[in-house]
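EI: anyone free to look at a 181-residue chain?
SC: sure, send it
EI:
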Amino acid sequence: APDFPAPEGPAAIIAGSCSAATLDQIAAVRGRIPICHLDADSLLAGDMSAALDWAGELLDSGPVLLASSATPEAVAALKSAHGAEVGARIEAALATLAAGLADRGVRRLIVAGGETSGAIVDRLGIPAFEIGAEIAPGVPLLRSIEPEPRLFALKSGNFGGTDFFPRALAAMGVAPTPGAD
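SC: here you go
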């Protein structure tokens, strides 16, 4: 596994997974990393402007976490109200969010959620990755094959322990900074 130098620029975490592991990982960084809990209505409308404005105000101070993750009950209620395609609509909105973060200079991105990761990689047009050191079992550090490489940690929701986000940030050369939700 090659040792990837940390690129210049901010870091962000996007959590789209609703797994118990991801919910625990979000809870574990509360108070250490600013967290924006994304509103379902904004996600379904595809309007990420408020979330991007929030992140834009904080990115120079350290990493931020933007989460659409919800309890199984909340997910069931969304599916009941909006239909089975609600997941694909939220993934598309999170991909729009990732593109907006990239436009704001984010060069290190952690994504929690397998489908969310795929939607984001597609939206960003990443052609391939180099595989680096393992952050957690089954989750390596990735460097994009692009003229200006970016670092990624893409994980299925149930991967990684409760300390996954700080470990992934550390692997990317970033330390969490205190922040409020």
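EI: The longest helix spans residues 86-103.
SC: 👍
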